[in-house]
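Methods: example folding runs. The two proteins below were folded one after another, and each record is reproduced exactly as written to the output file, sequence line first and structure-token line second.
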Amino acid sequence: MDFTSTSLQRNYPLHFIHGAISFVVHLRDLVGFKDFVRKRNLGSNEEDGFLKDFWEGAFQCAFPNSSREKNFDGLCTGEEKIETLPSSIFDMNMNSHSYTIYNAVYAVVHALRALYSFKRKHKVLPDKSQLNLLQQGSWKVSDPNQTVMEKQMKDSIILL
């Protein structure tokens, strides 16, 4: 989800830069992402303080016993529809930052799953020894220049 500064987007005139510069990031829509966002409401997440603060700022309302109660006219019900917000406040489409984070998490989960399935497949080797993936020796990276120099010294013929 992409959260912006609501006070900047609502109160600061940005019309002078419209059309001056634009960036397009190509990305794919995630299946189920919009449905997940639509189902988010405060009725199901009352303990989420961040979402509560965002909700009050985005919908310009306040919850009972809120510190913002004086700043807004209406009371929040928690049933406001997030898709009614302008895209400058909350974009229902996944942006490039969200997509990058999604891909990073997906890559880590995929790697952990591959490691787990490899460990399960190769739990016991044919000689009845157990494979311990977590205690593998660390890999040593040698200096390529030193390696080349050592090889040249071994292969060189000294002519007198």
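Second run, written to the same file directly after the first:
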Amino acid sequence: MDRRKNLGMGTTEAFLKGRYTTSQRGLSLNESKMQPLKTPYVSAYLVQNTKSNEDESSSLYLNDLERSHCFMNDELGDDDVNCQIKHFDQHYDQCEKISMPSQAHFFHEYLSLSKPVIITGAIDKWVAFKKWTKSFLKEKYGKTKVHIKATPNGEYEGVQDKSLWESNRYFHIPKQVEEQLPYPDLVVERPASLDMLFSEFLDLIENVSRGNTVNMSAYLEYSSIADYFPELKSDITDLEFINMLELASLNIWLSDGNTLGKLHFDPFDNLLCQISGEKHVTLFEPHNNERLYESHIQESQFTFNKSTGLFHRRRLLDSTSMVMSPVDLKRPDLKRFPLFADTRPMKCSIKEGEVLFMPAFWWHEVQSRPNMSQHRNLAVNFWYKPFLTREFPCPECKLDINPKCAESWVWNGLGSNTETNPWDGGHTGVQSLGFGMALVRILKLIHGMVATQVCRVLGLGCPWFEY
């Protein structure tokens, strides 16, 4: 059966309905409406009330954990024995850096080509840079309850051996389900979830950053500004060069600054805006899906004991992640994942006041570094419904124009002048965009080299045909 047809509900639409913004980068196995796995056994066997072992002797002792981060300071860190990435030749493709573009330039050179770029001069005048101090945020929102994530080692949502989890002894997946998981011995480690006042969180991340609190990392991630801090929206402005896309969510990302978001992709076009600290992003093109072993991976979650201050690996979940790679960039297992040796990363490092455009479905791993005087890392990101999209998990699926995105441009009359018309080809207004859309529909019926050459001759970016 074709996996793309077996998804049932469109995965991007499913994420936009709330799963993604809560950091649940996957689908519940017992939700048959969204069921990518073709089995009737999931509902009966995979249930969330997983037993827990409360034996403190099996705690995850944090002092025994190593924190080692590769891909920092634009180098691989090969001198670190924990960073044995020998297949790279020490050279990255570097992100292009440009000043704020016009809408037409951004569309033609980056959005339509699915090309990352660092943009300067776009957010320099945001009020947020001077206004969002710890004292201001604490006074304004200190009593706001927030839902934060925490890990023992600063790594968020990496892949680990399932045998490390205590509940693995009595959490059994039926054979009919297990056979459909490419890596049944692996799990994605979701961070522990904690609820606290925002003032408590601000104190916590400062203590972690200063070294007063050890063996813990805390992160306010995937958090909607509209839901938590609605008044802050007036301190940032929309970026006009991308306003042809529909905004899906506007989020705040605030941490102690020493965090590593493990290798994954997002089904949204993303503008990551750095306010405090730095982020070093390692990216891989979407055509590396098979080399990065895109698949379903069962999820798990840390638990945190507030009385002891210890994390535990106890909770296996009845859901899968669809967007995480099983490849560990720090310690790649090239025997198990040999195709990874054929990848070539791109490096994009953004400083305060810079914006990174990450096109939808680009794989990325994000190393954050704190502003040492503010003891934090702070960013906001705009997620847009993607211009180019595909089904997932589906390693062989190629990017294609999102018909909902393109058709909305027609109905909204985008392209009333040559400056804002992304299909600029000598026509104006809706007629011009209508011409472009008609051409797109024709090209979508054509496959192979002919379509690619037509795109090139007409000056349209058509990466969905190119690999």
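Comment on the second run: The chain has two domains: 5-48+67-389, 400-465.
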